[in-house]
Amino acid sequence: MKYQLSILAMLAAWLLPQQSQANSHKIEHIASNLYPHVRIITEQYQPHSIMTSMTKHKLPGLSVAVIKNGQIVWAKGYGIANKETNTPVTTNTLFQAASISKPIAALAILHLAQLGKVDLDTDVNTYLRSWKVPKSEFGIITLRHLLSHTSGLTTASFRGYARGEALPTDVDILNGKGNSTAVTATLPAGQQFQYSGGGYMVLEVLLQDVTGKSFAEYVDKTVLTSLGMTQSTFAQPLPKSRWHEASAAFNFEGKQYQGDWFNQPEQAAAGLWTTPTDLAKYVIAVQKAKQGTTTGIITPSLVKDMLTMHHKDMGLGPQLRKSKQGLIFAHSGKNFGYSNRFNAYADKADGMIVMTNGDSARPVVAELQNAINDHFAWDLSSPMLVTPFNMSDTLRNDLIGEYVWEHDKTFKMHIVRKEGAFEIHNLVEGGKFKFIAEAQDSLVAINTGVKVQVETDKKGKVTAIIWAQRHRLIKAG
Q: What domains sit in the chain, N to C, each tagged with a CATH number?
């Protein structure tokens, strides 16, 4: 009997590494089975690899983490983090999380509410000392409004500041003394969705006023450390001692930005440095709390508040979506030179995080997430199937011209005709996007899936476009 047990033990010891290698190989199979995210129904497509997609879209580097049954089953880096030093991307490479900073920052506010130091439905001016939300006819603004982008406040996003450039204070940013417009109310609070990085700047100042500590100091210790996100930090600028850990940022042509990256003093809105593996720890903690287990500061009651749906399926921090397999919490992030996305289930322990170092990354991120989704038979993401629409020549011709964002005239786009379709030039961030018509009043980008709605007046003349259901740009000429 002892001999038989010994043989079985030896067999098991031999089999386990083989099974591990087989599972690894099976998951790596995903990397060779990517398809375009936007698929025109009249065309056929062949699979390609992650590196092929990165090369096509001029994306230097990418890092991925996949969660299955509460465990990270695949984490890997691809490509280059810094072309000047020839540093490769690894699972330890830091990326700017951009707007994925928001759901992490939201945890700090929700924790303060759990401690009874703030109330989610009280006028935020009750807690603000160093700056006040200007009085307006749109009513009081609460923490719930700010967290769910229903405050009616302006300033959707922030551009960042070149390395070495003087950084404005938080109050200066709110007052429009940085490189962004002043944060003001333009819609009634609580009645509709308006994405507002400015609202998260208010949260940043409020947290500092309530705790008496800097945002990075408080959130790094209270949130990141408690979740075991030991590589992550909200420190802005990133300490020089950690520069070697960070990926440089790259433009749409795959060229490294001068100075390697831009600093983001708007920490709560866009300032987190992190990795997919660290973000996976946040995702897993949320999933465990949803099932009744506390991890660090993330408690079941906190997650209940966080996953409450508001306008446009916004939670208090993450974006929410219902699917056949359960509630999904997610967020994307885009700073100059960084494009990221995470999608995860709230009611089962599965999810995926992709972070990249390029402006051109969106189609690669979508293709990889679709491949992961198909491999595990999830419904976290799906390709976009498009039927081309024969838009009238009059409307096609009228679409050509320049468009200016209604809240910031320095943000412009230009539409030109290109090979029977349209090309939209983003004159601020750079990049040229090819669009086709899918309806008389709708265009879709064939690489990214971004949609543009076309507004016309009573005479059928084009007056404005709405970019990605978020930014309304008025036709200027």
A: 95-383 (3.40.710.10), 393-475 (2.40.128.50)
